[in-house]
Specification:
The protein is α+β, with helices and mostly antiparallel strands. The protein has four domains: 3-173, Galactose-binding domain-like (Jelly Rolls, Sandwich), CATH 2.60.120; 188-290, Immunoglobulins (Immunoglobulin-like); 310-596, Alpha-Beta Barrel (TIM Barrel), CATH 3.20.20; 610-680, Sandwich (Immunoglobulin-like). The chain is 16% helix and 37% strand. Strands 24-25-26-27-28-29-30-31 form an eight-stranded parallel β-barrel, surrounded by five helices. A six-stranded antiparallel beta sheet has the order 3-2-4-9-6-7, with no helix packed on it. Helix 2 (329-342) runs parallel beside helix 3 (356-365) and helix 4 (383-400) runs parallel beside helix 5. The protein is globular. It starts with a helix and ends in an 8-residue tail after the last strand. The structure holds alpha-D-glucopyranuronic acid.
Length: 688
């Protein structure tokens, strides 16, 4: 819509606009054929794939066998797709951009190898112009393989789903274009040079490619538009790109009195549009989000966003849903809505580069994002591995450079001291990240082993982050405070984030009055312990001003092949919501009571609804002040405030049979209520 209006304007100005839209991006996700296994000759132009399974992307071949995971298929799979080359493609450049392929891909067109990509989480792009048939169908063939092999991540407590699990796009451009081949990045990069309420200055880097055999002279016109499409400013720079060459053109554009991107309070996103204009004709256009903001960490005050302290109230998120990694944008929209209902204002996108759509949601809703390189536990310090990890880092940064929601780049998760040259690897990556993007700090999530044994894999980072499971994998939940203080001090009192903490919970398993954690590797993960863990540890973090944020582990249960604990094999059950998204666990509401200002009341242990003892305590999460309780319609008066947002009544006696439990509170005049049913049936007497 915007491009058409712009072309019309250009025509009126006497400039003749491009006959066709200069750039077309076509979804390429339907009518694929899939075969699980390796197949001789499947890359050829002519191949009988009629018996293969018809699939639509995003697709994973582990949607069904990932749970319990022991027998999930890991190996090669083939995809093929036949398509014509319409006439309007003649004379244009044609590219294929894959959103991701797990973990490695080899791509062929009409029997010609276009290239390979190693790394399961970044987009990659090949030009296919020279191999296209215009008088016959084209045959695209992709071999994907999800065995870890030598590709990072070599370790990690999560299932590696195989397949083309993100969308594929076909891109058409003219012979003078903004390149789609810069590590599959947008080819336009917006680096904030300065930002204040008075003005902002943005350096715009445009990478221009010329496939013709003459030098091309052009203008790169940058237009900043506000959210209502109003032009805020326009800047032009002239460039010349040699035949078959690429040119990097930089120019700066100012924004007077910018509306800052201010997290969930005001996530204001401008649009920066770059038009390539040659002899008055628009040859290409790329639009990118532009958010103006300033974030840094103050060792004493924590996170500072646009001059104001902000605590990152975060969650860790894997990219997986009920269909494994083949999540749809609708799935991601729903997950973002759940996170926002809970009141999270930050998300740690764990252990690998996540989808562009989810980052767009973070931009739009003001959720601060921690983007993480897929370097987990182990380093294989060979040239091949290091080259691949560096490639994955450059891909992550360039492909996501313009998302205002990304505040930091994480170099690793839980680098192990027994791996090869961990500190050297991290130093190399931090230097590369600073080169690629001087505007964002680096961090990394350190395990106890990393904290204790690898000071140089932590000291080299700009921000310190700690994964601590006191109270789950040993120790007590309340040990967290001393550990945070110890490590913050050990690493120079630069401030820290708690990048992981939490406990497992089955919504089918319950135990009242717990004082000790269950066996973390056992089959019994009562929901009530997860409540205790989070009730104890969030206040510990919030009592420490040097903590710039916390990221609870984990928003949703997720697949982890090889785990045999809790109520389901192959699942890591530390989520606050079940993997199928059907149940928000008690602890979800503890955070909602703390982070969402809307009046709420929630009775915990609602699912422990078959009682064999009449005596019980009742615990309610609420952000209201006076919480009153009724059992079977009889008022029990006000609950006692045990801690912030936690209200209790001990020694309640249930009646035989059904018991209706009701709680009510009010906040700013708004009434909030909750109710649940518990059935008390005395345990059958022994012996009869
Ligand atoms: C580790 C790790 C996570 C893992 C979690 C757990 O710290 O970073 O990937 O899932 O702990 O044990 O649940």
């Amino acid at each position: 819509m915007r491009i058409l209006r712009y072309s019309a304007a250009l025509a009126l100005l006497g400039g003749c606009c491009f006959a066709q839209a200069p750039r077309a991006e076509i979804a390429f996700n339907s009518d694929w054929k899939f075969y699980r296994g390796d197949v001789e000759g499947a890359s050829a132009e002519q191949f009988a794939d009629g018996s293969w399974q018809a699939v639509t992307l995003p697709h994973t071949w582990n949607a069904e066998d990932a749970l319990p995971g022991d027998k999930m298929y890991q190996g090669p799979g083939w995809y093929r797709k036949e398509f014509p080359s319409p006439n309007e493609w003649r004379g244009r450049r044609v590219f294929l951009r894959f959103g991701a392929a797990s973990l490695a891909a080899d791509v062929y067109l009409n029997g010609n190898k276009l290239g390979s990509h190693e790394g399961g989480f970044a987009a990659f792009c090949f030009e296919i112009t020279r191999y296209l048939h215009f008088d016959a169908q084209n045959a695209l063939a992709v071999r994907v393989d999800n065995r870890r092999g030598t590709i990072s991540p070599l370790g990690g407590d999560f299932t590696i789903y195989g397949g083309l699990y993100r969308p594929v796009t076909l891109i058409l451009t003219g012979s003078l274009a903004i390149t789609p081949l810069d590590y599959a990045g947008p080819g336009v990069y917006l680096r904030q040079v300065s930002a204040s309420l008075d003005s902002a200055e943005v350096e715009v880097t445009t990478k221009v490619t010329n496939s013709s055999n003459t030098t091309r002279f052009y203008i790169a016109q940058v237009t900043v538009l506000d959210e209502r499409n109003k032009t805020i400013n326009v800047q032009r720079a002239s460039g010349a790109v040699s035949s078959l060459g690429t040119q990097v053109l930089k120019e700066s554009i100012g924004i007077r009195h910018p509306r800052l991107w201010n997290g969930a309070k005001d996530p204001y996103v401008y649009t920066a549009r770059v038009d390539l204009i040659e002899k008055g004709k628009r040859m290409d256009t790329v639009e990118q989000p532009l958010g103006v903001r300033d974030f840094h960490v103050d060792p004493q005050r924590g996170g500072i966003l646009n001059g104001q302290p902000i605590r990152l109230q975060g969650v860790c998120l894997h990219q997986e849903g009920p269909n494994g990694w083949a999540v749809s944008e609708k799935d991601e929209d729903a997950d973002m809505a759940t996170m926002r209902e809970m009141g999270a204002n930050a998300v740690r996108l764990v252990h690998y580069q996540h989808s562009p759509h989810f980052l767009t949601l973070c931009d739009r809703y003001g959720v601060i994002a921690w983007s993480e390189l897929a370097l987990v536990n182990n380093v294989h310090y060979t040239d091949e591995f290091r080259q691949n990890v560096r490639q994955q880092l450059v891909e992550m940064i360039r492909q996501n450079f313009n998302h205002p929601s990304i505040f930091m780049w994480s170099m690793y998760n839980e680098i192990g001291s027994r791996t090869e040259h961990p500190a050297e690897m991290v130093k190399e990556l931090v230097d590369l990240a600073h080169e690629e993007d001087p505007s964002r700090p680096t961090t990394g999530a350190a395990s106890g082993d990393t904290m204790a044994n690898l000071p140089n894999a932590i000291n080299v980072l700009d921000l310190i982050s700690l994964n601590i499971y006191d109270g789950w994998y040993g120790g007590k939940p309340e040990d967290l405070g001393a550990d945070l203080d110890k490590y913050n001090q050990k690493y120079g009192s630069k401030g820290a984030s708690l990048s992981e903490y939490g406990a497992g919970a089955s919504v089918k398993q319950h135990q009242q009055g717990m004082t000790q954690p269950p066996n973390p590797n056992g089959r019994f993960h009562p929901e009530e312990w997860q409540d205790i863990q989070h009730e104890t540890q969030l206040p510990i973090v919030e009592a420490r001003p040097y903590m710039w944020g916390s990221f609870l582990w984990v928003m949703f249960d997720f697949g982890s092949a090889g785990r045999h604990e809790g109520d389901t094999d192959g699942i890591n059950d530390k989520g606050l919501v079940t993997r199928d998204r059907s149940v928000k666990k008690d602890a979800f509401y503890y955070y909602k009571a703390n982070w969402n200002p809307e009046a709420m009341v929630y009775i915990t242990s609602r699912r422990d609804d078959q009682r064999t003892s009449p005596a019980t305590a009742i615990k309610v999460y609420s952000n209201c002040e006076k919480i009153t309780l009724k059992i079977n319609g009889k008022s029990l008066g006000e609950l006692t405030k045990k801690a912030d947002r936690v209200y209790v009544r001990d020694n309640v006696t249930l009646s035989d049979g059904a018991n209706l439990v009701e709680a009510e509170g009010s906040l700013d005049g708004k009434i909030a209520r909750d109710a649940c049913n518990w059935t008390y049936k005395p345990a059958a007497a022994k012996g009869n």
